[in-house]
Amino acid sequence: MNYFISYLVAVNLITFIFFWNDKRRSKKEAWRISEKTLIGLCLVGGSIGGFLGMRVFHHKTKHFLFAWGIPIILILQIGLGLLFFFKVLN
Questions:
Q1: Confidence of residue 87 (pLDDT cuts 50, 70, 90)
Q2: Residues of the chain with pLDDT > 90: what percent?
Q3: Average pLDDT, whole number, for the chain?
Q4: Cβ–Cβ under 8 Å, residues 53 and 19
Q5: DSSP labels for 5-47?
Q6: Which of 15, 54, 57, 64 could be stapled to 46 by a disulfide with Cβ–Cβ 3.0 to 4.6 Å?
């Protein structure tokens, strides 16, 4: 269980940093991080970091895929986590 929590903390921190970095690059009109990468990080467990990155940096908030997709991924991941906790661990 400790490995799983460590993984979630790490992937969410990485996702948050990727959103910050992409926002910074967008202001400088530099090479950007692909949307597939940002969504992929959210899908592998970084949805909290992605959601916070969107809100804190006001980044990708007008893109439909991000504005709706990341909250939906987050809700599904929370639901799966609760299901796992109550069905498997108890």
A1: confident
A2: 77
A3: 93
A4: yes
A5: HHHHHHHHHHHHHHHHHHHHHHHHT-----HHHHHHHIIIIIH
A6: 15
Going 15 to 63 to 43 to 56, the CA torsion angle's sign is positive
Cβ-contact 68, 37 below 8 angstroms? no
Q: Are 50 and 15 in contact (CB under 8 A)?
A: yes
In the predicted model, what is the mean pLDDT of residues 80-90? 85
C-alpha dist (Å) from residue 12 to 20, 45, 48: 12, 7, 6
pTM of the model: 0.89
Sign of the four-CA dihedral 75, 77, 79, 85: negative
Tokens of 49: 């970091």
Q: The dihedral of CA 79, 82, 85, 90: what is its sign?
A: negative
- Virtual torsion, Cα 83, 38, 10, 57, nearest 10 deg: -110
